[in-house]
HTH dtxR-type domain-containing protein (Ruminococcus flavefaciens 007c), 156 residues
Amino acid sequence: MLGKEKTENYLRTILKIQETCGSARGIDIVGELGVSKPTVSIAVHEHEKEGYIECINNYNIILTGKGIGLAKKKEDIIFFLLMLRYLGVGEENAKNDACKMEHSMGDESYKALLDFFLNNHPEIVSQENSGLKEFFLADSLSILTASRDKYDNIRI
C-alpha cells in the first residue's frame, strides 16, 4: 500500500493530466513525476485496487469519483497554512510545514485542531494577510489542482 502523500501526489498528477488530455497514460505520469515506468505501474495497480482510478483499454487512466475527491482535497493544507501564519511562522516555513502536516496528520487530530481554531480563533480564516493567498496558490496550483469553491469568499 502506498502512503497518503504518494497517493495524493499521484492522484493530483493524474487529475492535472486528465483535465488537459481527457485521460492519463502511465508514460504521462512518468514524465510528470520523474519516476520509473515500473514504479508507476505498481502505483496504478494499487490505486485501481483502492478504487481511486479506472484503467480503460489497459492504458487510459481516469480518476473515479473517490479519486477526484482526494485529488481535489486542498482544504487541509490551506487550513494548516493559515494556522501557521496566524501563529507567526514565516511564509516559506509555513508553506513547507503545511504540506508536511497535511500528509501526515490523521483525520481525528485534524478535526480536533480545526474545531479548536474555529471555535477559539475564528479570525484565522478572515485575517488580512497581504499576499498570502497569492504566494501560496501561485506556487502550488500545479500540485494542488482543486476547485476554490469553498474558499472564494474567505479573505486571507
Q: What stands out?
A: The two ends are 36 Å apart (CA to CA). The chain has two domains: 4-71, 75-151.
